[in-house]
Amino acid sequence: MQFPERVETPRLVLRRFGDDELDAFIAVWSDPSVRAALDPAGAADPAHAPERFRHHLEHWREYGFGLWAVEERPRGEVAGWIGPTHPTFVPELADEVEIGWTLRRPYWGRGLATEGAAAAVEAAVAHLEPERLVSLITPDNRRSIAVATRLGMREAGRVRHGELGFELCVYALSGGRADAPAGADGA
Questions:
Q1: Distance between CA atoms of 49 and 132, rounded to whole angstroms?
Q2: Is residue 86, in this structure, part of any structural domain at all?
Q3: pLDDT tens profile 115-171
Q4: Does the residue 1 lie in any domain?
Q5: Helix segments in the chain, DSSP class H
Q6: Residues near 98 by beta carbon (within 8 Å), at least 6 away in sequence
Q7: d(Cα 22, Cα 62) in Å, to the nearest integer?
Q8: Which of the residues 25, 59, 89, 116 could staple to 82 if both were Cys, CB 3.0 to 4.6 A apart?
Q9: Are the CB atoms for 145 and 171 separated by under 8 Å?
Q10: Number of domains in the chain
């Protein structure tokens, strides 16, 4: 069964990014609140966002699934991205399926990330059948930790971002239930 390129929820349209949407992707990445959540060390250079965009387009081509652009109805502008990908920026988890979500600041606090991420979990379980799903979140990102918790995920260890070097919490969901917490070293 092919992974859906478009999913609709009560308030959102989640759709595959087009090759011509680099500006929309950069607009999300450029939001100072987004940058602080995704790159707390300020380690990424300006070329990082275009590189990630190309990476996500290629991920769809190579694996048949990936991040969706998020639009809130009826506005139709790109509010962020949500969806499953392989977290290749953490080599020891590169074969897993990560559910990621990022919305620009004006879209925070209304349950949109949870709504979209729940749709991504449902699609990933139905179409990809992973042993577990993970979400990688910086330890200070309380909003994303709350989303992961609402999805039924539990902290299952810590890893380092392989490209930028900072620590990430691994939240995990397997077999339809949250993983038991791992030891402090993530083992």
A1: 27
A2: yes
A3: 999 999 999 999 999 999 999 999 999 999 999 999 999 999 999 988 777 899 999
A4: no
A5: 22-30, 32-38, 48-63, 112-128, 142-150
A6: 84, 85, 86, 87, 133, 134, 135, 136
A7: 19
A8: 116
A9: yes
A10: 1
